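Task: sequence in, structure out. Protein: TetR/AcrR family transcriptional regulator.
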Amino acid sequence: MKKLPLKERIIETALVLFEQHGYHGVTVSQIVDECGTSKGGFYHNFKSKDELLYHIHDCFISYVLDKAREAYDNFDTPVSRLCATIQSFTKVFDLYKPHITVFYQESTYLVGDYYQKIDEKRDEYRKLIVQMIKEGQTNGDFRTEVPADISTMSIIGMINWTYKWFSKEGPLSIESIALIFNDLILHSLLTEKGMKDEAVNNYLLKSQPISF
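Result:
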């Protein structure tokens, strides 16, 4: 098996140690000892332990933000843009579950410029989803009586909780879970006009139920 580059090995080691012992319970010395490098190797890749924590947070937040931007650019309707964004958001809990777990455990220790950079990306992501929903309300696909801001926070809150219960060994794939989320969200937001869009059927559960 190909050996991971040193930077990735440091990240993988830190993820395990932070999850087990907490951010302040782990030293740089423990990280380098565990992954078989030196402090010189560590500081060649990260200025500090704080920067390492920032990088762990930034990996998955940058992923979902980039995917949301791609969804907006590559799809033509608010429904398809929102559903593609929900799919990529859900997928992150399969791709980056250890990163997200550490984020929720240790995010209070992210301060200064590192916190601001992460917060700016989270805010941009939220605003992009709000924009998708408002555009759907403008063209008549989404219900106007449901506020876009509250709908957005409900979507983010519901999907964020996936990190607590999703398991790769569980009965449902991450793709199946994303489909369930899209079905729930669309049935909450769509107008009668929106339901008539043929593309909507690509994001709804079929008549055959998914077994859990």
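The two ends are 34 Å apart (CA to CA).
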